[in-house]
Write a structure and sequence with these properties.
Elements lengths: L8 E5 L4 H12 L3 E6 L2 H15 L3 E5 L5 H15 L4 E4 L14 H29 L2 E6 L12 H21 L4 E8 L5 H14 L3 H10 L9 H12 L10 E4 L11
Parallel strand pairs: 1-2, 1-4, 2-3, 4-5, 5-6, 6-7
Helix pairs in contact: 1-2, 1-8, 3-4, 4-5, 6-7
Length: 265
């Protein structure tokens, strides 16, 4: 299916690895110019070159920390100057410490909310005036299923994700009249570096080794396997595209029907 994205310009935060990287690749394959944003300059530039070589599309590497308001302002001004426009924003730059309440510190809560919630809000605020002026735009927030399915094992993520979902719902109502669509995609476990870290945390909280923690996670998934990043990226690209022109304020689960709380699995 042609998604109708030729000559569109996209910014993907958290674009150097995992879901963000795969989303940038899919968007580039569909004809987008893409700016990817992340904190690790070396990894970011390597990823940009790899995607550009594979797709033939322009991939711009912009180093920045979405928990820093100054970085956000600078990065999006640079992206707009170099791309000439921003049709699409995909936010993936967000991770939260796993763990049950007794294990979480004040710093854990602060870092989660600063990056996974306020980082998304800052990114949206940076592009919305431009999209409003142009009368079009699509924003997809990659959030997480624990914003819709709370679990005591991922409290900081769940709270930040629930806030992201609430924000997207409200903003979609405010900005729809300007031709701007805002949706969220909500994965469960995905085979990324972050999931490896969450497995380790689950193992700690359950008092088991990491292989046993992985089996606990698999038992919570009716499909019996962990999702791959490209399976999320394809949905993100679709929602960002004109093919989803009447979809806004929607929160899509990509979690293999995960139901069982991992603490009880």
């Amino acid at each position: 299916m042609d998604l109708g994205l030729t000559d569109h310009a996209a910014v993907v935060t958290g674009g150097s690895k995992g879901i963000g990287r795969e989303t940038a690749r899919v968007l580039a394959e569909e004809g987008c110019q893409v700016a990817i944003v992340a904190r690790d300059r070396q990894r970011l530039e390597k990823t940009a070159q790899e995607i550009q070589n594979a797709t033939g599309q322009t991939i711009i590497a912009l180093t920045g920390d979405m928990s820093d308001p100054g970085d956000v302002k600078r990065v999006f001004a640079d992206a707009l100057a170099r791309l000439g426009k921003i049709d699409i924003l995909v936010t993936c730059a967000g991770s939260s410490p796993g763990g049950v309440l007794e294990e979480l510190t004040e710093a854990d809560w602060a870092s989660s909310l600063s990056l996974k919630f306020m980082g998304y809000v800052r990114s949206c605020r940076a592009v919305l005036p431009h999209m409003r002026e142009r009368g079009s735009g699509s924003i997809v927030l990659v959030v997480g299923n624990d914003g819709l399915k709370p679990t005591p094992w991922e409290l900081t993520a769940g709270i930040a994700n629930a806030a992201d979902i609430n924000f997207a719902s409200a903003a979609s109502q405010q900005y729809g009249k300007f031709g701007i669509r805002i949706n969220t995609v909500n994965p469960g476990p995905v085979n990324t570096d972050r999931w490896d870290g969450l497995e380790k945390t689950l193992a700690r909280d359950k008092g088991v080794d990491q292989d046993s923690a992985r089996q606990i996670a698999l038992r919570s998934l009716p499909l019996g396997r962990i999702c791959e990043p490209d399976e999320v990226a394809g949905l993100v690209a679709f929602l960002a595209s004109p093919r989803a022109s009447y979809v806004t304020g929607t929160h899509v689960l990509v979690d293999g029907a995960q139901q069982k709380d991992l603490l009880d699995a």
